[in-house]
Design goal:
The chain has 9 helices and 6 strands. By secondary structure, the chain is α+β, with helices and mostly antiparallel strands. The protein has 2 domains: 93 residues, Arc Repressor Mutant, subunit A (Orthogonal Bundle); 67 residues, no CATH class. The longest helix has 13 residues. It has a 3-stranded antiparallel beta sheet. Bound molecules: zinc ion. The site of zinc ion (ZN) has 8 residues, from loops.
Amino acid sequence: MNVIRISDALSLNRVRKLIVDRFGEDAINLILYLSERSYVQESIIMNDTGIPQKSLQRSLLRMESEGVVDCKKEVDNKSYVTYYWKLDIGSLERFIYENTIGKFDALIDRLEAGEELYYCPSCSQLEILHYDSEEAIDYKFKCPECGSELVPLTTETVENLKRNYLK
Ligand SMILES: [Zn+2]
């Protein structure tokens, strides 16, 4: 599995936090609204959702730069531009996956490929603060953030942290 379904994902606090951090505080409402529609005119989104214009535009632009919304422009004969926006659900699911549990899966892939990785148990509650073996040697197996002993990372550790992450 390499995606998370939007409806499931948005019920997770970590995903909600990711969306708010990256796309702005109104982005969750915006996503829920757009997920049930095709291209919607920007002013209609604003009217329907009640999201203030500045916040809406900021969210849409940030989402566009991550490729999770698509924009269509229409220019009338007075050069007036109208914007239409559509959510790219597949891209959004991929974005969420890659920024949440995908990071754990990527580490598992590296470990299964035989790479030696080290991590700091104290600094790895939500994210895994990890180093490759060269870095670990450079740091003399002490975490550069907190000074704790660096420990070899195992797939079991990653799985455990991944489970905690999704709680
Ligand atoms: Zn540490």
